[in-house]
Amino acid sequence: MHATSATSATPSLGGAQPASSRIAALRRRARWRRRLAAATLALPVALVWLLDVWTRPTRIAHFRSLEAGTYLLSSIETLILWASLIVLASRSRGLLRWLAALVAILLSIFLLGGQRYFFDQYVTYLNADAASFGASVGRSVVNQVAADASNFARFVVPPSLVIVALLVAGRRLIRPTRTQRRIATLVAPVAIVVTLWAPCSFRKAQASTPDVIFMHALGRVVAARTGLSSEQWVSPSTRKPDYLPALVASPSRPRNVLLVLSESERFDSVCTAYDPECKLTPHSNAASPARTPLLALRSVSSTTAISEIVLWSGTSPVDSAEAVRSSPMLWDYAHAAGWETSYTTSQNLDFADARTFLKELPLKHRADALDLDPASDLDIGAPDEMATSEGLKHIADLREPFFAVVHYSNTHFPYRVDLKHAPFQPCDDTKDPDRTSEFVNYYRNSIYLSDMATADLIKGVRALPAGPRTVILFTSDHAEAFREHGQLGHTNSVLDEEIHVPGWVDAPPGTLTNAERAALEQASRAYTTHLDFAPTMLDLMGLWDAPETGRHRARMLGQSMLRPMQERAVPLTNCAAVWGCPFRNWGMLRGRMKLEARQWDLSWHCYDVQADPHEWKDLGPDACGDLPASAMKLFGKLPRD
User: Fold this and answer.
1) Architecture of the 256-583 domain
2) Kind of pairing, strands 365-367 and 340-345?
C-alpha cells in the first residue's frame, strides 16, 4: 500500500503537468494572444504611417506644429476606422463579418494602394480638387487606369495583401465580446461617415494621413453629386460672346490663315526647326522645310481647356469667367470680317463638355471625333488621319480669304500608336517608374504617327489653289511631363516639361511683307507664348488695328509676332475662373526668368530657363526681381494658401 501510494503520488517522467502549470501556460498564451490582437488592430495605422513616410518624407519633416496636430488627429481617425472594421470582421459568424472584411479590402485598394499610385504620377495625394475633376470626367479616369492596369496592380496588391493577412490574423486572435461587437457595429459606420465629412488638410501641406485625405475627397464629391453641397466642378460652359460689328479686314497681303493644333507635344519630341536629319517628326519636317520656328515658345498653362481658350481668344488665363465667356474667338472675328471659317478636330468634345463651349461658333464647316468616328475614344478621339481627310475637304470648300483650325488629339494619354510606324524602341505604355524610358518611347511613337497626319494636311493644303496664299501656324496645347520633377502627364505644374511646346509659322513667299518677315525672324528666337498667337492671327487677317476690336484688344496680353515685340511679364496657371484645377499651381514668366510654385511649396521658386533648361537650380524668389510681387498682386497668394 505504501509502495502503491508512493507511486501514485510521484509523477512519471512522461506524465501530464500539474494543473497549476497548465493554468499558467494558458494565461501566458492568453496574454500573448491579447498582445497580438492589440498589435493586429494597431498595425493598419502603422502601415499607413510607413507608406506615408516612404512616399513623402521631406514634406512630413517640414510639418509645422499645427500641421503635426492635424496629422495626429487624422491618425486617430485611421486607427478607429481600421480597428473597428477588423473587429467586425473577426466575429465568429454572420453576414456582417464578411461585409466588414470586404469593405476593409476595398478601402485598402483605394485608400492605400490607390493613393500611392496617384502620388507616383502627380507628386501629391488625391484630394478633393482632384477627385472633383475626376468625377467630372469619370469615363476618362476609368480609361486611363485600365490602360495602366498592370502598373496599378503593383501599387494596390501589396497593401491589400497586408490587410487580408490582418483580417485572417484577427479571426484567429481577436475574440470580441458581445459588447465589443456592438460597439464596433456602431463605431465602424460612424468612423466612415466622420472621415467622409470631417474637414482635413487636403490641399496645403496635406497634413493628414493619406487614407483620411482620400475619404474626405470622396465625401466632397458625394456631397456635390447628391446636392448636399453647392460645390461643383468649374467648366467653361456656354459662351455669350460680345457683339462684333461688321469688320473691314486690311491684311498687308492677300492670305488665308490655318491653325494646326496638336495635343500634349513637348518641344524636345518634335523637330521645331527644319532639320534634314530629323528623326522625331520627319514627315512634317519634310512637308514644311521653309517654316519659321518658334524656339522659345511656352504655353501659359498645361491644361487643355485653358490653353485652347488663350490660343483662340487671346484672353489672359487669369481673366474673370465673364470676360472669358464674352470674349470673341478668332472664328468670330473672321466671320465679322466676311471670312469663311471651319473647325475640324479629332478630339472628342464630350470631354469636359467642350461641345457646349464651342457650339455657337460661326462656322461654315465643323466636325469633331464623334462625327468622324461615333465609336471614338474619349481621351484619344478619332484617328488623326480622319481629321486630316475631313479638314482638307472643309478647307477646299472655303471661299478665300478663310480662317480654319485643324485640331489633333491622338497624342493624349493613353497615346495612339501603330507598331508598324513605331521607330522608337523599346517602347511600352506602362507607367512603371522603372520603365520610364520605354514609356517615353511609346509617347514619341504616338507623336510620330500623328505627324504623318500633320504632314498629309500640310501637303494637301499646299496642293490646293489657295495653298500659296495660306499661312500655317502650328503648336501644341501644352507639353507632357515624364517625372522630370516627379510628375507624369500635364496640369500638374507650369514647369517647362509641361509648357515648353513646339511652334512654327509657315508663310509662303509673298504672304508677308519684308517687315513682317523680319519681325517673325526675331520672334523665332524670342521668348514667346500662346498669348501671342491670337494677336498674330488677327494681324494676319488684317484685323489687329481695326478700331472696332480695340476694347477686346486691350484685354489681350500678347503681341503680334509680325511686329517688333517687347519683353513683358505674363501669368502662368492651371487654375482659371472657367476651369477648376485638380492641382493648384501658378507663376509668372518674363523672358528667360520664370517664377512658379505648387500647392505644397512654402515659397516661390525662380529659374533661369536659358541657363538651366531642366529647372534644377532654384535661384530663390529675389533672383526673379519684381515677379514675386507681381504674382502676389495678380494671384493674391501662393498656391498653398
Assistant:
1) 3-Layer(aba) Sandwich (3.40)
2) parallel
